[in-house]
Amino acid sequence: MPSSCKELYNAVVECLRASDCIKNGYSPAECIRMPLKEQLPAQCQNLLHAYGECKLSFKLLLPPSLSLQSPRLLRPGCFK
Question: Where along the chain do its domains lie?
Fold first, then answer.
């Protein structure tokens, strides 16, 4: 994960931890999905959106043959 996305991720985590959704016993996965997502503070919603855009922007920069989940990246000498 690029460092800028990691910083956004950490900010999302901290925002979720402080939210009423987590304090009411819901999991982070539940809190970031509808309908609970609508009840998150605007700051958390904005951070979630920015984090999603960040991940998407880096995914779009890679050609499909070299996606981060591609088995080709795991083979030795794949960049020769």
Answer: 3-62
